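Example 5.3 — Iron hydrogenase
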Amino acid sequence: MFKFNTDVQMLKYEVLYNVAKLTLEDRLEDEYDEIPHEIIPGTKPRFRCCVYKERAIIEQRTKVAMGKNLKRTMKHVVDGEEPIIQVLDIACEECPIKRYRVTEACRGCITHRCTEVCPKGAISIINKKSHIDYDKCIECGRCKDACPYNAISDNLRPCIRSCAAKAITMDEELKAAINYEKCTSCGACTLACPFGAITDKSYIVDIIRAIKSGKKVYALVAPAIASQFKDATVGQIKSALREFGFADVIEVALGADFVAVEEAKEFEERIKDLKVMTSSCCPAFVAHIKKSYPELAHNISTTVSPMTAISKYIKKHDPMAMTVFIGPCTAKKSEVMREDIKGITDFAMTFEEMAAILDAANIDIKEQQDVEVDDATLFGRKFARSGGVLEAVIEAIKEIDADVEINPIVCNGLEECNKTLKIMKAGKLPNNFVEGMACVGGCIGGAGVINNNVNQAKLAVNKFGDASLHKNIKERVNQFDTDEVDFHIGNSSDESNKSSCKEA
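Solution (predicted structure tokens):
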């Protein structure tokens, strides 16, 4: 059992654990409907008004944990896109929809600054108190900023506040609704909702069944894994995953090393014509550009993400392999299904899901052998935190003697990404390289983590990176046969690759 930060996270884990256990024991199809009663037994509710509502919520959670889509979710899906982030409508408590409200702190002052600043005349004075006409209010917030008594409160829903992509609205029943034309699958809303009414779809059933069927399934562990388990090493995690049935466990950070070299070469080749190039490793950042700033899509690096890079390498040398990404990122589940790279990585799961399946199999990480983990350089491992991608690209530029000057900017979280992309759209960005991470802190701040202390996680990732025996990216990637592996998007096949890491 792992220690979780909130009861919401614990409930999610309990559902995943039960789904995994029943799948391992080949009892899921017959007994999945018993999971709500297993988690909410008896007649006393744990959190809600009654056990019946709690069980109904667990029933929805179970469906999503089994990889299914909820009916209400499908009302908002466009163009057949697979929805990863889904609203559990029974769990949604219909938070207040009127964002600004005049509180009892209003003193009925005579300056009436709130009425003066309102551009729509939505505030009037009635009985010496300010009142908001919600038919006129445009929620600009000027009244709140102007009030000297802080008497106007901001009640923006936590899910809406968390979504920098502005993908969350309210439906006709005042339930949260996701606009999938804007959603990046970053999962920020899943962490923000105090009622746990938004969650990410899981593919653990498919993953477990693939392993049980005898297929050769590789676990691709993201470097952020070094920050997740205080009492266990990455080597012990590797042993635990092997015991679970994975054929081998490979560092995604090695794919990051491949990416760093390729992105450095691409930057040298494209920047004169492109003016600005963005990183491509964060799927939520890439999705945000494509959905909200489509005119900037050509500025995205064509180099694949580290997950896709290492999957390509493995499948080039082992065509029968299946690959499963394990990391902090819910958006990776969307990335594996993206049409231009679909099938390269078979599935993705989060650290939360990894914890659940290991527990379901009675595998204690702390009791495992601490085996060697020595795939990647310190630079590849530090991709997991904000600034790490840039550091690796700068290092690769130096190592390959690229004739180019880099003037970078690091965007830590989607809010900062938005600011930079708006300036970039206006053609006024002074920088020529943008590292974009949708989650604050980088991958270590993802929605699928167990340990959500970003500062602790950053220290752990840096320590894991510094422990690497490989300090030179070019030297490390040259030890691998990448000649026939295409690390770029847009070519018709892997065989069409014209530029391998070794040619750097």
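Remark. The mean pLDDT is 94.
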